[in-house]
Amino acid sequence: MLRNGGGVKTGLKIKKAGAVDIELRAPPSKSYTHRALICAALAEGESFIRNPLDSEDIDVTVNALIRLGVSCRKTKEGIAVDGCGGVLPDVGEVTIDCKNSGTTLRLLSTLSLLSPGRVTLTGTKRMRERPVGDLADAIIQAGGDVIFTGNEGFPPLRISGTLSGGRVIVDASKSSQYVSSLMLSGPYSDYPMNIMPKGSIASKPYLRITADVMRAFGIIPRDEGDGSILIPQDVYSVSDYSVEGDYSSASYLFAVAAVCGGRVKVSNLNPYSIQGDRAFLGMLRDMGCDIDLDSYPDSVVAECRKRLSGIEVNMSGSPDVIQTLAAVALFADGPTTIHGIKNLKYKESDRIRAVINMAEACGGAVEAGDDTIVISPAEFRECRIDPADDHRTAMSAAVIGLGAGGVEIDSPECVSKSYPEFFSELRRAGLLHE
Ligand SMILES: O=C(O)C1=C[C@@H](OP(=O)(O)O)[C@@H](O)[C@H](O)C1
Ligand SMILES: C=C(OP(=O)(O)O)C(=O)O
């Protein structure tokens, strides 16, 4: 970020890029890295996480595990984790700052019951506005005690007690992370844990990622056929685990092909990954891009040569790419309707508000309801966007800037939450100049 002589902050200015033909590498998956660290921390012995994401949120999880007494060592190739076998050492009472990493705070809430001392999980001002009450209810059913030391239902939360397990009914309509939290620590409960999600599950594909990582560490959650998940009582095996690339982060790179026109090849991606955000490729295809999943074993290519069409899509399974699609929708020839947006207001910022502000600032029009948003194409004008510390708003704003020019982004360094190299990668690809 630049500062002018008077000390007044100026943002990062993004100019129109023109047609592209570039190759970029997706960073490792944030969701997979968090989970692999947790499974490794609970396994018996030393695991190695290869190709982990190196970002602010992952540091938050690593530091939290260290505070809980688990040794994690970063090396050039990855992170070595000395697992506790499910019995965390007695580190006394600890308070852990999860910053604004919802995944860390939620996934570690159940795990805190495995620590002999009381654990308080807290975070930034925004994290203290992100709900955790329904997870707390589930943790209490599973044998724990939870006290909210600030506002009821929100961090900070003080967790103590034991993980007894048994039948746990959890309202997961605000976040899938509540279910993932129970699943990941479930193997160490006193009685087998049967998790019954109540109502519609937000961001459901993340549960497959949780099960996938658990499986790699030797524990297979069982789908009971009645909507509940049975977690066997067992100990995770150590693993030498390689983290795949991140489709949420890659969405901005594919979006560049859509808004600038041309071809973008993104490597370090499993073309047939189970990540819910891979669905973004299907959306680009419906808007008129060609997507090639089959020519490379570890790369995906998006090629966009036509005027984009507006689409109608339900994105409840891929919330983290809604801002990316909203940015692309501004370049289409008609409105784009996105359903399934209800839980966007609980993220790093109120992302429904963020999409409206971003689109309107650049000359687009948005109509938003409780669960649906309609984005109309923009008559672009110069704009300045304050992402309000939300990495995904900053990266989506950059997409608009590369397609239309004249976008200035305040405090762009917030991208370090999930993709610290984002702007340097764009620079390396010749898309940013300053
Ligand atoms: O479990 C995970 O790794 C995540 C789940 C999603 O959250 P919700 O389930 O709260 O929607 C997603 O938005 C977040 O970035 C990562
Ligand atoms: C919502 C996100 O993450 P978290 O919930 O971990 O803060 C995100 O990365 O978009």
From TrEMBL:
Active site: D320 (proton acceptor)
InterPro entries assigned: Enolpyruvate_Tfrase_dom, Enolpyruvate_Tfrase_sf, EPSP_synthase, EPSP_synthase_CS, RNA3'P_cycl/enolpyr_Trfase_a/b
GO annotation, biological process: amino acid biosynthetic process; aromatic amino acid family biosynthetic process; chorismate biosynthetic process
EC number(s) per entry: 2.5.1.19
Residues holding 3-phosphoshikimate: K30, S31, R35, S175, S176, Q177, S203, D320, N343, K347
Subcellular location: Cytoplasm
Keyword Cytoplasm: yes
Pathway assigned to this chain's UniProt record: Metabolic intermediate biosynthesis; chorismate biosynthesis; chorismate from D-erythrose 4-phosphate and phosphoenolpyruvate: step 6/7
Catalysed conversion reaction: 3-phosphoshikimate + phosphoenolpyruvate = 5-O-(1-carboxyvinyl)-3-phosphoshikimate + phosphate
Pfam family, one: EPSP_synthase
Keyword set, alphabetical order: Amino-acid biosynthesis, Aromatic amino acid biosynthesis, Cytoplasm, Transferase
Domain of life, source organism: Archaea
Residue ranges of domain Enolpyruvate transferase in the record: 16-426
GO cellular component assignments: cytoplasm
Residues bound to phosphoenolpyruvate: K30, G102, R130, Q177, R351, R392, K417
GO molecular function: 3-phosphoshikimate 1-carboxyvinyltransferase activity
Function: Catalyzes the transfer of the enolpyruvyl moiety of phosphoenolpyruvate (PEP) to the 5-hydroxyl of shikimate-3-phosphate (S3P) to produce enolpyruvyl shikimate-3-phosphate and inorganic phosphate.
HAMAP family per the UniProt record, alphabetical: EPSP_synth
Subunit and partners: Monomer.
Similarity comment text for this entry: Belongs to the EPSP synthase family.
Name this polypeptide is given: 3-phosphoshikimate 1-carboxyvinyltransferase
Biological classification of the source: Archaea, Methanobacteriati, Methanobacteriota, Stenosarchaea group, Methanomicrobia
Gene designation: aroA
